[in-house]
Write a structure and sequence with these properties.
about 180 residues, mainly alpha, 4 helices, rod-shaped
């Protein structure tokens, strides 16, 4: 953590040494491109999670519907009931991880609140474009770091949901084949 703070301090010093507004504008535009890519990547992950979620909800309610309609005559020892119960468990587990992706998370955007433009250690004497650009670059860097962290969590949750689903379906297939033999 101390090393991270030291690196951040070093970057601020380098940022303060830049004298050209054109160089600052270039840095800002590059940072905005990276942030845009991060946000579009996040949207893709959310769309994929939403698609899998919708499929699993239909599957879950279909299985629950089947069990509900055959409720009075359910034989717990029946292989079909065992498969249905396991399928409910698999779908429910995957849905749990997908919900972590689908529910809105705090994301950082290209805009900055005015209070974030008022860092005393970055702002130079006057309110000039130079100072504001430095603040924007710093804030974009923070937004990129936070979005990458969030994106990493979302990707991890998506992978877990898909792995649960694939392993569950594989186990159900193997169980079904075992029953047939």
């Amino acid at each position: 953590m101390l090393n991270l703070k030291l690196m951040e301090s070093e970057r601020l010093k380098v940022l303060d040494q830049i004298e050209s507004i054109e160089a600052l504008k270039l840095l800002k535009s590059e940072a905005e491109m990276v942030l845009d890519e991060s946000l579009s990547s996040e949207a893709i992950i959310t769309n994929k999670a939403n698609t899998v979620f919708q499929i699993l909800i239909v599957l879950l309610f279909s299985v629950l519907g089947y069990l509900a309609t055959s409720f009075p005559n359910i034989d717990i020892k029946s292989h079909l009931v065992k498969i249905c119960l396991f399928l409910i468990f698999v779908a429910g587990s995957s849905i749990w991880y997908l919900l972590k992706i689908i529910y809105p998370k705090l994301t950082y955007t290209k805009g900055t609140t005015p209070s974030k433009l008022l860092y005393s250690d970055i702002v130079i004497k006057d309110w000039e474009e130079f100072s504001i650009l430095k603040n924007r670059i710093y804030n974009l860097e923070e937004a990129i770091k936070q979005n990458k962290k969030s994106q990493s969590e979302r990707i991890s949750n998506f992978k877990i949901a898909v792995y649960i689903l694939l392993i569950g379906i594989s186990l159900i297939t193997l169980y079904s084949l075992f029953i047939l033999l």
